[in-house]
Design goal:
The structure is a single chain. Helix 7 packs antiparallel against helix 8, helix 7 packs parallel to helix 9 and helix 8 packs antiparallel against helix 9. This protein starts with a strand and ends in a 16-residue tail after the last helix. It is an alpha/beta fold and 459 residues long. The protein has 13 helices and 21 strands. A hairpin with a 7-residue loop joins strand 3 and strand 4. It folds into two domains: 297 residues, Alkaline Phosphatase, subunit A (3-Layer(aba) Sandwich), CATH 3.40.720; 139 residues, no CATH class. The chain is globular.
Length: 459
């Protein structure tokens, strides 16, 4: 059994399974012949580590990274960016390569720099530039450039007010990606083929407010009202082109790492910490400034936070951080106190927003690396975390890193069509991103490693 995994970053089930189901005939056909359902992401539901959890069957605690940037030590500025070397657990393609299977992997993060496999690998959107050594074997890079010119790992800037240029880039990127996929499908031997297209993620962040009437910034009749739907229809046609290239011995999975939802606003986590007396600065900035630019009075600071689609809160613990102030025996009491206050925090009018705060130890079987002391999903992810300071308010209705309409949601999509038996269009519940790796290995007749945390999904 050959397996093709089509990865569509950030696709929410409510768009594909419900709202636009009738507009997406190829995805609907796969659903009708197979099984499908919402795919629960990792907490946090972030591109990295969600794809990594998907292809390893391990949670972020086991992987040891909790986002793009992670603490590398207990200093106040010691952060590192995830690379392929951060992924120490075996991925699907590692098991398959060891079993003598041919694999092709394109854009599954984190995969820069590309690793040696039995087959081909093109690295992901974390690749610094097209000048970087992004392909394995190295000769593949020249082949790709002869086919499409400069390879696009991502759009140049998805947080922009220049929507026409953003849309042009997204279509160019997706067109190019599928051209490369089709080329490798035809010209390379493969038993397992997986690629990830970033276009849906960029469409959601750039255009969500234009099609969602519930978005705070939605304007009826705007010129981009159908932009996201038209892109999804384009994407569906591209998927259909791939399906026409396959034989009857190929199982097909369509998966996303997480979903998307409208962004209502941002919680200025460090402004809140200052307001509550947990964070002290030697001098308040006269303009909006990144946290890294601030001069923090660490000797009187209890906690600080970081921005992003989820909130990360770090405690200043004596004996752990350089100028720690929290006695280790009071560590859990302080976490309890902060959880209670954060979960009670409403919007600017005091209305409850449903924030959830987690201790990493509650989420993961084991902890590797250095996680945040608390992981915060502000407003059930309708609110993002704003890390910059200088707003003089806890609540903002914009993003501090550029225009952004959407946040990530906890559920992506899973569709599986196994040609050996029809799933009859059955919708299944309770699926998790960690189920994908053992499911692929099972389809290909390989044993499931005992330390994989996911389960096998069958038709």
């Amino acid at each position: 059994m050959k397996v093709l995994v089509i990865g569509l970053d950030c696709v929410p089930p409510e768009l594909v399974f419900d709202k636009w189901h009738g507009e997406l005939p190829n995805l609907a056909c796969l659903m009708g012949m197979g099984v499908y359902g919402p795919l629960e992401s990792t907490i946090p539901p972030i591109t990295v580590p969600a794809w990594a959890s998907m292809v390893t069957g391990k949670d972020p605690g086991r992987l040891g990274f909790y986002g793009f940037r992670n603490r590398k030590d207990y200093s106040y500025d010691g952060f590192s960016i995830v690379t392929s070397s951060s992924l120490e657990e075996k991925a699907i393609w590692d098991y398959l390569s060891e079993a003598g299977k041919d694999v092709v992997v394109i854009g599954v993060s984190p995969s820069y720099p590309p690793k040696r496999v039995q087959g081909c690998m093109i690295s992901c959107f974390l690749t610094p530039s097209a000048e970087s050594p992004y392909a394995y074997p190295p000769s593949l890079k020249e082949e790709i450039e002869e086919l499409v010119g400069e390879y696009m790992f991502d759009v140049k800037d998805f947080r922009t007010d220049d929507k026409d240029n953003l849309l042009k880039q997204i279509y160019e990127m997706t067109e190019q990606r599928f051209k490369v996929v089709k080329h490798l499908l035809k010209t390379k031997p493969w038993d397992f083929f997986m690629f990830v297209e970033m276009g849906p993620d960029r469409i959601h962040h750039g255009f969500w407010k234009y099609f969602d009437p519930d978005h705070i910034k939605y304007e009826p009749g705007n010129p981009y009202e159908n932009t996201a739907l038209e892109y999804y229809k384009f994407l569906d046609r591209k998927v259909g082109e791939l399906l026409g290239m396959l034989d009857g011995e190929t199982a097909i999975l369509v998966v996303s790492d997480h979903g998307a939802k409208r962004m209502d606003g941002g919680i200025c986590i460090n402004e809140w910490l200052m307001k509550e007396g947990y964070l002290n600065l030697k001098e308040r900035p006269k303009r909006i400034a990144r946290f890294e630019e601030l001069e923090v009075d660490w000797e009187s600071t209890v906690a600080w936070g970081a921005g992003g689609y989820y909130g990360r809160l770090f405690l200043n613990v004596r004996g752990r951080e350089p100028s720690g102030v929290i006695d280790p025996e009071n560590y859990e009491r302080m976490r309890d106190e902060l959880i209670e206050k954060l979960e009670a925090l409403g919007d600017e009018n005091g209305k409850a927003i449903g924030t959830r705060v987690y201790r990493p130890q509650e989420l993961y079987r084991e902890i590797r690396g250095i996680p945040p002391d608390l992981i915060i999903l502000f407003g059930d992810l309708y609110w993002r975390s704003v890390g910059s300071v200088g707003w003089n308010t806890v609540w903002v209705r914009e993003n501090d890193t550029g225009p952004d309409d959407a946040d990530h949601a906890l559920e992506g999509i899973f569709i599986m069509c196994d040609p050996r038996h029809s799933g009859g269009g059955k919708r299944v519940e309770g699926l998790h991103v960690m189920d994908v790796a053992p499911t692929v290995l099972n389809l290909m007749g390989l044993p499931i490693p005992r330390d994989m945390q996911g389960k096998v999904v069958t038709g």
